């Protein structure tokens, strides 16, 4: 399948003297994490299908610094930010799309204060735009009759008030959407935010991702949909901890759309 | 001698308001111990937030039961204060129900007060039951022992007594009952006092009247020592509350300066500091004590009502970890009070007491348990942002003390060296497309 993926870099665009419509900010998880790489690939398949003229930074992309900032290392964050802004500005980037709500929030809200002003969009918002403008037609009954519950990522939902785009996109799969008791602004965190992904949790009664998975399982879903690579990992681990991996799948919104389209 | 009650009344008023004013000054002084922060922007949006959130109670009703009960108590409190005006005039000039010349309008007004007083009494009783009989979880967390627990109940008792006194005062007012206008609730209490002579009734009425006004003065002064201070501070706090997206954490300016200098190829590392630079107080990165926080954060600490809505939504707290956003706010207030007392005892100067907010009040374990998910910020009915305090303290731990958990240090080293939180080579960043 890999020969079907077209992933041009900014360098290539530059060499041809062209500007892409959007820059796909892959993010560290999307580049290196085995599970998240599948999300990056699914999103690229959608972009290819919709004939979107996009590019990635490739080896010129570096970590946004978001995790460092939330861990309290403002120095490291700003060093990363300033370096990334130099690269982005050198290429004259205006519009950025990313599958990671943490990169999304950081690029959108925190980079402008350091001179990096871009139009930043989350991939669920972008897919929704593609569908609304007619550039992407979602047809297929792969998930018809299936129950999907969407877990709101904190950094897309509460942090940036985007609750509808991922739900609108999911409706295109013809699946039945069911809401957890805690959803939208009351959604429970997956437990990975604020740099928790990279350390052992503090002592407690249980892990946050297990509690969140219990929320999800209460809706008796076939699929838990996510819109964040970290949420995806945490929910996948939660489903394993509950020994439900045979019955419940954890998939990103982009993967669900790519599968529906049989990409 | 006939003016004695008037004089006593005037003295009580002066004392009551005077002591309160003195304490308000102290609160303002303490809040100003915080770092300056510019919140003079977007005035109209700020006013809207205050009107919607504090005046309009928009976030209270997200939890319908406590929300509706709270609105009853809140409306009752505001409207009954009109009655206070009459009490003050009567007290100062020795008149009796000075506004009664309004006739049926007066009856309507007092009738409304009576209904509200009754509803407030009922609501407050339900609040008490929720706290003490049903024992709602958020009122029984570990930080809700001792004073915080008692404080919550004292406020409820105060309101029960004040409302009862108001109704008893009306029920034993023979002339008012005879008017048969406005005594919508008190007419059912009046029979309890039937058979008593008019002089006895008059003394009971006077007694209730005096206790009512003195009780209000005492309650006013109780505010300073209590979470009940929120009835005043909710307004400025919602006005100064965060307007930016919740996910947007501030960029530390002091760091920006240093980073710019580091990244500037033309910067001379051995250059003499600019003129005047040595006068600047050396910046501390992050916060280890209350003076390092900004004044809006300190105002929030005084505003916190300890309702625990934040804590009951906190993923860390829900899974049994030590972090409670409410405790972060309570600790900040307690430490600020301690610093304030220290300043009072040392002629206006803070003498190092060997203590600080970080470590002595808030532990590292609490700080590192936060997922920065903003659930606490979303829940707070008065726009408090506990996450901002947690972040400032993490910044101090990491940038001043290099005291991050080991795994986070590894993650940060990886970002520094490879541009990713894992130990992968930056040159492999695009490998995913061919896998």
UniProtKB/TrEMBL annotation, chain A:
InterPro entries: Cys_rich_dom (IPR004017), HdrC_iron-sulfur_subunit (IPR051460). The keyword Oxidoreductase applies. GO terms for molecular function: 4 iron, 4 sulfur cluster binding; metal ion binding; oxidoreductase activity. GO terms for cellular component: plasma membrane. Signal peptide: none annotated. Keywords: 4Fe-4S, Iron, Iron-sulfur, Metal-binding, Oxidoreductase. The keyword Ligase does not apply. It comes from the Bacteria. Residues 33-102, 148-235 form the Cysteine-rich domain. This is CoB--CoM heterodisulfide reductase. It comes from Pseudotamlana carrageenivorans.
UniProtKB/TrEMBL annotation, chain B:
Residues 295-326, 359-392 form the 4Fe-4S ferredoxin-type domain. SUPFAM superfamilies: alpha-helical ferredoxin, Respiratory nitrate reductase 1 gamma chain. InterPro entries: 4Fe4S_Fe-S-bd, 4Fe4S_Fe_S_CS, HdrC_iron-sulfur_subunit, Helical_ferredxn, NarG-like_sf. It comes from the Bacteria. One of its GO terms (molecular function) is 4 iron, 4 sulfur cluster binding. The chain crosses the membrane at residues 6-24, 68-93, 105-129, 154-172, 207-225. Keywords: 4Fe-4S, Iron, Iron-sulfur, Membrane, Metal-binding, Oxidoreductase, Transmembrane, Transmembrane helix. GO terms for cellular component: plasma membrane. The keyword Metal-binding applies. The keyword Oxidoreductase applies. This is Fe-S oxidoreductase. It comes from Pseudotamlana carrageenivorans. The lineage of its organism: Bacteria, Pseudomonadati, Bacteroidota, Flavobacteriia, Flavobacteriales.
């Amino acid at each position: 399948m890999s020969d079907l993926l077209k992933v041009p870099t900014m360098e290539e665009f530059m060499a041809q003297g062209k500007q892409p419509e959007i820059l796909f900010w892959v993010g560290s998880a999307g580049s290196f994490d085995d599970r998240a790489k599948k999300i990056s690939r699914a999103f690229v398949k959608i972009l290819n299908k919709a004939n979107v003229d996009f590019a990635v930074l490739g080896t010129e992309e570096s970590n946004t610094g978001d995790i460092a900032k939330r861990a309290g290392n403002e120095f490291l964050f700003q060093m990363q930010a300033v370096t990334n802004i130099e690269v982005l500005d050198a290429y004259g980037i205006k519009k950025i799309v990313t599958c990671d709500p943490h990169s999304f929030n950081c690029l959108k809200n925190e980079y402008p204060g350091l001179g990096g002003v871009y139009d930043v969009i989350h991939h669920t918002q972008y897919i929704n735009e593609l569908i609304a403008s007619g550039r992407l037609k979602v047809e297929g009954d792969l998930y018809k009759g299936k129950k999907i519950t969407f877990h709101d990522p904190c950094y897309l939902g509460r942090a940036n008030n985007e609750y509808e785009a991922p739900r609108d996109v999911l409706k295109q799969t013809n699946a039945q959407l069911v809401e957890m008791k805690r959803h939208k602004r009351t959604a429970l965190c997956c437990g990975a935010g604020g740099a928790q992904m990279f350390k052992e949790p503090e002592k407690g009664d249980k892990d946050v991702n297990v509690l969140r998975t219990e929320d999800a399982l209460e809706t008796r879903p076939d699929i838990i949909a996510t819109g964040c690579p970290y949420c995806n990992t945490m929910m996948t681990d939660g489903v394993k901890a509950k020994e439900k991996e045979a019955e419940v799948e954890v998939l990103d919104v982009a993967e669900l759309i790519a599968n529906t389209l049989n990409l | 001698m006939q003016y004695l009650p008037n004089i006593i009344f005037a003295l009580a008023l002066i004392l009551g308001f005077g002591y309160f004013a003195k304490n308000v000054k102290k609160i303002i002084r303490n809040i100003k111990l915080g770092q300056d922060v510019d919140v003079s922007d977007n005035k109209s949006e700020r006013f809207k937030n205050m009107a919607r959130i504090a005046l309009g109670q928009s976030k209270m009703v997200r939890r319908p039961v406590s929300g509706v009960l709270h609105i009853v108590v809140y409306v009752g409190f505001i409207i009954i204060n009109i009655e206070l005006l009459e009490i003050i005039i009567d007290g100062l000039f020795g008149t009796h129900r000075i506004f009664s010349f309004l006739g049926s309008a007066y009856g309507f007004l007092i009738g409304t007060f009576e209904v509200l007083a009754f509803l407030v009494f009922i609501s407050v009783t339900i609040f008490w039951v929720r706290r003490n009989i049903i024992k709602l979880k958020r009122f029984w967390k570990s930080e809700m022992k001792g004073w915080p627990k008692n404080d919550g109940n004292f406020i409820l008792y105060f309101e029960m007594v004040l409302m009862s006194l108001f109704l008893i005062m009306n029920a034993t007012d023979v002339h008012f009952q005879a008017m048969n206008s406005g005594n919508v609730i008190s007419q059912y209490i009046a029979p309890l006092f039937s058979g008593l002579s008019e002089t006895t009734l008059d003394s009971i009425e006077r007694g209730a009247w005096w206790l009512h006004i003195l009780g209000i003065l005492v309650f006013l002064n109780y505010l300073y020592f209590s979470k009940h201070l929120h009835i005043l501070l909710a307004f400025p706090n919602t006005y100064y509350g965060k307007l930016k997206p919740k996910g947007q954490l501030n960029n530390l300016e002091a760091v920006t300066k240093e980073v710019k200098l580091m990244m500037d190829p033309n910067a001379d590392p051995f250059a003499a500091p600019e003129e005047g630079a040595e006068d600047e107080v050396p910046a501390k990165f992050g916060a280890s004590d209350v003076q390092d926080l900004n004044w809006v954060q300190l105002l929030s600490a005084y505003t916190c009502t300890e309702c625990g809505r934040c804590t009951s939504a906190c993923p860390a707290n829900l899974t049994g970890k030590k972090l409670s956003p409410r405790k972060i706010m309570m600790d900040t207030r307690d430490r600020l009070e301690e610093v304030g007392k220290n300043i009072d005892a040392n002629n206006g100067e803070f003498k190092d007491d060997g203590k600080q907010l970080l470590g002595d009040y808030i532990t590292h374990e609490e700080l590192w348990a936060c997922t920065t998910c903003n659930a606490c910020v979303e829940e707070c009915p008065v726009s408090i942002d506990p996450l901002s305090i947690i972040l400032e303290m993490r910044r101090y731990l990491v940038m001043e003390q290099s005291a991050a958990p080991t795994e986070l240090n590894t993650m940060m080293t990886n970002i520094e060296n490879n541009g990713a939180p894992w130990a992968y080579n930056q040159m492999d960043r695009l490998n995913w497309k061919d896998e």
